[in-house]
């Protein structure tokens, strides 16, 4: 092994560290934006969810992906949307949140099982998982920090919402 190979390995490790650091900074910045603009974030999440559901329908029509799996994914996104009712106050013990946690793993597993038996190019599978399976749950995961710094608001009945 030449000295140039050692330098190449060191540069690869250094580049990986920079990528991880950049990703962490980006996630921190997104969390800050969510905390600062919770009303706008709610609208963005709702719009993203509708877009992902439309993509599911288009995948059924154009690419002939299985209807039952796509219907299950659309159901999952409907359950995820239930978390928007109390957004940014998402209770970690609420039924919609717990169902969302279970369904994101179930959805991932079912699609992983499908793509292991039906060949598609890797880029197609990665794009599908990134946009159609992980995007919305990941967005809710980032927005969990908004609950910590949001101020209580007035409800329709004139009382203050319970933060705890």
First-residue to last-residue Cα separation? 60 Å
- Count of DSSP H/I helices: 6
Quaternary state reads: single chain
Q: Tell me the fraction of residues in β-strands, as a range.
A: under 5%
Question: Main sheet, how many strands, which sense, barrel?
Answer: none
Shape: flat
Structural class: mainly alpha
The string of secondary-structure elements, in order, is: HHHHHH
Low-confidence stretches: none
Relative helix content:
over 70%
* Global mean pLDDT: 85
Rg computed from alpha carbons, rounded to a whole number of angstroms: 20 Å
Strand segment tally: 0
Plain-language structure description:
This protein is 75% helix and 0% strand. It is mainly alpha-helical and 164 residues long. Helix 2 (38-62) runs antiparallel to helix 3. The longest helix has 34 residues, at 3-36.
Gist?
By secondary structure, this protein is mainly α. Helix content is 75%, strand content 0%.
Topology:
Layout: H1 3-36, H2 38-62, H3 67-81, H4 95-117, H5 122-143, H6 146-149
Helix pairs in contact: 2-3, 2-5, 3-4, 4-5
Entry keywords:
single chain; 164 residues; mainly alpha
